[in-house]
């Protein structure tokens, strides 16, 4: 057996690693000039930082397994973090029951309902039973108008835009389970890797090369060679790969399937959100909070993530680093904006949150944008998730759609890769099961675990 993997993001690299451990000959073909996809990093303040903010959770068993297997478990660490909400022109801490009681935009009954519904979704609700239910409709009914208008609706609007009313409760169940699972006695501990995710990607790529995996970049797949409903090979601008009996695993976004000549696949109605992260390197701290959700209207970003309230500023030569994050639909103006236009849009509103903020604080601004940050999870999204084993012999799919109903993460990519390997006949039983809800759809009997 020979395995050809199209797409060198985390899912593709994890699948390559699992297969290579079983002695299978693997080739990974990546269209860009870097492996790692959304995990890529750049230099800032003398260190490396992710284009898009990253951390992991205490229950991420699959990621812990990979770090340990690569011999870099000692590079991972956990720290308590802080959350907050900007609402009605004020920053509120949002870490404990006491903080909830101090949250003035919501009355006492609304706070009780918020706590009860959050615990229910994170601990008891079954995602399979709630795909036909709109998250917003459910919150209005059970959490109440008070807390939904003050918190949930603004957050869903800024993340999902025109699709906010179509987000299934199943997605929120996955999100709440992920967050509550990383809390202990009210405090949330999140994980990070010394040297950034570059430590993981560099170590994984080196190990793959040592295992004989062929890593090819800067080669977009342009054509499938299919005979008698069986894939025989692929063509890029400069290469032809494949042989009799080879298996092919597609890990690229579904919207690119029909751009490949002779492709028997299409997106099946799946759409993607883009995301932009405007990263500020500052002389001063913007706030005392790591993760701040912006719940007031009129802001071009939905999250203010102050990375150096998580990782000490000393690791970045004393600079304070802030992400301004925003998802966008392809129909929104943000999808077409230049970096200069994005900068002009994002920075001025910061004074509404911190009146002392001045652009004089800014050392550097970095902007990163992707059109395939997350799938648009609408009602009954599982019906759109493709089967890993396609109707074309030896052609398989494992991509971001298979993360549903969970949230995209490095850990969940590993889970999806492990499930895909099983479908292809590659043993991956050594990859532990954590709390991930990913890899539950499209993988046959494997998905019921």
From TrEMBL:
Pfam families: Amino_oxidase. One of its GO terms (molecular function) is oxidoreductase activity. Gene3D superfamilies: FAD/NAD(P)-binding domain (3.50.50.60). Residues 10-357 form the Amine oxidase domain. Coiled coil: none annotated. This is NAD(P)/FAD-dependent oxidoreductase. It comes from Emticicia agri.
